[in-house]
Write a sequence for this structure.
């Protein structure tokens, strides 16, 4: 087991899962601010996915892929969770939950594969910072949307 390859696969899978989640929410919301934030996050995740793929290719590897069942469960979970509440605060909350799960999983992976090369560690750190920033930005959206509904 090569810790560099393992960590890069974790980074790739985390970013791909983030993309699946964002696209599921994008299909549901009409809120311009939320859509703009989703587009911004989507671009950042796509950059991480590409960089992980390039680093894996440099090791003669390809991403392991995200389990089809995991993608389906993520998409279905978001759809089910928004059946009765499509409000921006609720969807921003879902983004916060998803990014928090990503932070937890990535923090665990970084510890599990601490022997990975610096390039993999750096990309993992970049994704971790992205997810932490996404939480802050989603919190701001949630607070802004809640302030509009109470005004």
């Amino acid at each position: 087991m090569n810790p560099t390859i393992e960590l890069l696969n974790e980074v790739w899978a985390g970013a791909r899962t983030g993309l699946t989640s964002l696209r599921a929410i994008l299909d549901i919301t009409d809120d311009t601010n939320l859509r703009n934030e989703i587009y911004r996050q989507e671009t950042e995740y796509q950059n991480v996915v590409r960089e992980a793929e390039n680093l894996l290719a440099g090791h003669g590897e390809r991403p392991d892929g995200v389990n089809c069942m995991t993608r389906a469960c993520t998409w279905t979970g978001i759809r089910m969770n928004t059946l009765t509440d499509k409000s921006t605060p609720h969807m921003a909350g879902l983004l916060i939950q998803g990014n928090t799960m990503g932070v937890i999983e990535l923090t665990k992976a970084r510890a599990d594969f601490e022997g990975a090369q610096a390039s993999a560690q750096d990309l993992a750190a970049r994704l971790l910072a992205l997810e932490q920033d996404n939480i802050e930005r989603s919190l701001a959206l949630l607070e802004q949307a809640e302030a509009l509904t109470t005004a």
Summary: Residues 118-150 form the longest helix (33 residues). The helical segments are 3-26, 32-58, 68-81, 88-112, 118-150. The chain is about 80% helix and 0% strand. The mean pLDDT is 89.
